[in-house]
Amino acid sequence: MRYTATLLAAAGLICSGSAAPPTRPGPGAGGPGSKNGMRNFIYIVPDGYGQHSQTMARDYAMLLPPNTTASNPGPAGFHLAADLLVVGTVRTWASDNLITDSAASGTAFACGYKSYNDAVGITPDGLPVGSILETAHLAGFKTGLVVTSTINHATPAVYASHAENRDSYEAIAAQEIGYSHPFGSTVDILMGGGRCYFKPQNDSTSCRSDDVDLFSFAASKGFTVMQDRAAFDELNLGENAPLPYIGLFNDDQMMYEIDRSREPEKEPSLLEMVETALVSLDKAVSGRTPPQSGKPGKPAGPTDKGYFIMIEASRIDHAGHANDAAAHLYETLMYNEVMDFVRNWIDEHPDTMMMSAADHECGGLTTNGFDPEPLQAAQHSLEYLADLWSEYNGTNIRGFFVDTILAGAGLSGVLSDEEIDALLAAGEDEILSTLPDLTAELAGVNWSTGGHTAGDINLHAYAAGDRWRELKADLAGNHDNTELPRYIEKVLGLDMDATTRKLREAAPFVAPADAAKKTKRNVKTRDGHEHGHAHMH
Amino acid sequence: MRYTATLLAAAGLICSGSAAPPTRPGPGAGGPGSKNGMRNFIYIVPDGYGQHSQTMARDYAMLLPPNTTASNPGPAGFHLAADLLVVGTVRTWASDNLITDSAASGTAFACGYKSYNDAVGITPDGLPVGSILETAHLAGFKTGLVVTSTINHATPAVYASHAENRDSYEAIAAQEIGYSHPFGSTVDILMGGGRCYFKPQNDSTSCRSDDVDLFSFAASKGFTVMQDRAAFDELNLGENAPLPYIGLFNDDQMMYEIDRSREPEKEPSLLEMVETALVSLDKAVSGRTPPQSGKPGKPAGPTDKGYFIMIEASRIDHAGHANDAAAHLYETLMYNEVMDFVRNWIDEHPDTMMMSAADHECGGLTTNGFDPEPLQAAQHSLEYLADLWSEYNGTNIRGFFVDTILAGAGLSGVLSDEEIDALLAAGEDEILSTLPDLTAELAGVNWSTGGHTAGDINLHAYAAGDRWRELKADLAGNHDNTELPRYIEKVLGLDMDATTRKLREAAPFVAPADAAKKTKRNVKTRDGHEHGHAHMH
């Protein structure tokens, strides 16, 4: 017997979905700390990142040059950026399942309410609940969503849209840009993938089922619209990036970092997007936005409010679903780079606070006899290689497999000629399920599932100076994920329940779940199942 | 290629083994907090306890009655005792392997030095390093070791002995009781299993290879000696327990809690031993020890020093090695009971501080589709059932297997008649490897290994009142396991390096590794391999 929604409900273990404030104290209720003076909040979601993701990334970095030089601080002190910022752990379960998906967990940490898997910013009774981002926007804060998934994927979706089902991608995109959100536009910066959802169906690269042109709508509302890396580069890492703007750099998910880092001209990295977003948010709230002649609708000057931004290292999760150890590693290292950048940013902007927690673990990763070399040898994600394999039209199939696919996966010399022949004879499905297993075996990496697990995840936080000790004292312990936005709410002096009341006055506007069925492109993105490319096992 | 001692050494990633104090700051170096007034320190080791161990135990407790009643605080707030006390995470690797064993990790968190797997209180160069317990003893503190493994198992061993190899059980026992330790007796309370190592070889239940009678030696030095539950009960949970005393309640490891809880007359629980030890330590350092007429050598009165005690929930690890989910669960729940008791104890004794961290994860546990019912149905550990199976002399083998073994494992009705026949025909090894797999499959529990993994583990801590916030601020983050005793050292005002110098003046006394070979009883206890009963797969 598995515990389902019915069972949990019978056991009294589902939240009511009422908009009344929770009666349980959130983290830090016993000691509020010195939150005065905090204007800005940065929330970072490493999607699908478990405790072993960090251990594997640290062990990898520790064992490879140049970390073995004499100038290294030494093994006992070796750490990655996120290590320094661990303050506690988080319980993640959804109202209908011990294993949450990104939508239910996101609804918890964006809005403060438990809900069912698939729910986007609504409670189990189908009513919308306001997010911390929407609340910050209503209070006059600038806001941003910067991700490497599609921008209308579950985690960014819960901050600026409300839907019965996360698969309502078209409706979610329309809400995020303000086309169909009752508050209009609530997000000043949107960056990530999912470009196809913003183009009308007559565009050959569209994945909409209607004629709505969300990029044109955005431009009409004053957004700078970017659809490629060249446009992004014109922002000069935020030095020339007045709000609002939207930059979507891939029709689907953005590239895995392991692939992108070898073709950086194709897309910006998460770190580059984060730097750009923070610099432009800082300028916007500091009144340093340069005048933009001839561009109507840009915010004109300073505000007494700060900003809220959600940054997602989205594809740690996708690589976990694919059991792709090398891709998982690169995404986790990029998350640590972002954590390092944000920590330094906060030291220079001490009116800013950071919190970071995954939505759930993914893949059931453990390491046992870890060897970094097979992961170092890998040049590409399995998704990238599967695309190459699907697209190959040549006649030297065996040579292409050995020289491009196996070599790209870091598996040169691993298989005998007979094994290669047998694998080629077995066909694509067998190939695509064998490659990750080979890498895992060689690297001492174990995956227990292609879905999520129920495990706790780590909570990280940072503030500058003396506030750092206060923040740690506030946030130590094990928290339910619904408690996390309540802390941000207190820090920024916001009222999420007021947002919920305003949303419900404007309701019903929740997107029908079956809208997803009309989506003409089959992008599988439901957590617990497969993400990205359907042929990736 | 796996990373071995040689590779790590070549990479400059092994500590020097020098007795010089580490140059890196330990936790809290940037903010010492208000440690004044702390007299006592309780260190708790949940051996082999990973983050998923806690998630599984919490989900189990949450989903079973009586936690589903109206008086339950509700799902978002549901937690176990250890949850409240999480403050950070710990890196665990040994000097010669990313995956540590209990000896190397114990040497790190007892003595503050990285060493190789198997090392007990010595550095890779073979020289002893002083433990926090030995240091506390030299400074006039009372000390205790309370475990559920054999008392000379690696984790307790590192606090009061020094050996090249953890398998030197006889030499370790002799050091722990003060027979062959250069400082004499350093431990005032020893409780756990391992009785056979304290009896001379002419005793039929001895596992020594010499005539040394450590119980008689202990008695001659003033120890009260207990060898069964009846003697323990006379202590009346510490109300009648002047120091020093030794209580060993099993020749081998103590019973798994899942078994012991059904036969509590056989052995005390870890919680009972902890309560007894803390009450008697408190009396000893508070001067409230009642006079003991006719018993020479008891400490006579109060001291201005407090106490240090290490408590180990030892067999979480053993159940992980055996991939025995039900036994692992019961051990983890007992650990949480001890954490709850200690937290309340500290509230009543605010001059006491607690820290708790595992030595490593064990089993690569993840949960995916967890169902508590198969674990609730289990009545015994697989070790217990394997003993019953081995000892069965009757003729109704099939009936015994179905009614006792399968029923005891909570697997009644799971196998068809044909499957039962096939299993019986396949023999004992197949039976013993099939039962944990069946339970894991039914309960949605995944084990990736029968050994340890490299994953980080959680750090917990507690202090009463305002000191709790200071402690959290000190200890948040990710720490190397070598940093942990340095914090205790500062709190109690001790000098571990002085102890190391004294030990080395008294050296050489490290037990020869080949002493283990003389051990006449084959108790496999090396981490990474099998613990307890050799026939438990």
Distance between the termini of chain A: 27 Å
Number of helix segments of chain A? 20
Helix content, binned percent of chain A:
25-40%
Query: What order do the strands of the largest sheet of chain A run in, or round the barrel if closed?
Result: 5-6-4-3-7-1-8-13-2-14
Summed up, the domain count of chain A is 2
Q: Averaged pLDDT of chain A, please?
A: 86
Q: Quick one: overall form of chain A?
A: globular
Q: How many β-strand runs of chain A?
A: 14
User: What name goes with the CATH superfamily of the largest domain in chain A?
Assistant: Alkaline Phosphatase, subunit A
Structural class of chain A: alpha/beta
**Biggest contact:** A-B, 80 and 79 residues
Question: What is the architecture of the largest domain in chain A at the second tier of CATH?
Answer: 3-Layer(aba) Sandwich
Query: What value does the Rg of chain A take, in angstroms?
Result: 23 Å
Residue fraction in strands of chain A: 5-15%
| CATH class categorisation of the largest domain in chain A | Alpha Beta
Multimeric organization: homodimer
What is the CATH topology classification name of the largest domain in chain A? Answer: Alkaline Phosphatase, subunit A
* Major sheet attributes of chain A: 10 strands, mixed
Give unreliable regions of chain A as ranges. 1-35, 69-73, 288-302, 514-537
Binding site for Mg(2+) (chains A, B): 47, 153, 155, 312
Protein name (chains A, B): Alkaline phosphatase
Cofactor (chains A, B): Mg(2+); Zn(2+)
Keywords (chains A, B): Hydrolase, Magnesium, Metal-binding, Phosphoprotein, Signal, Zinc
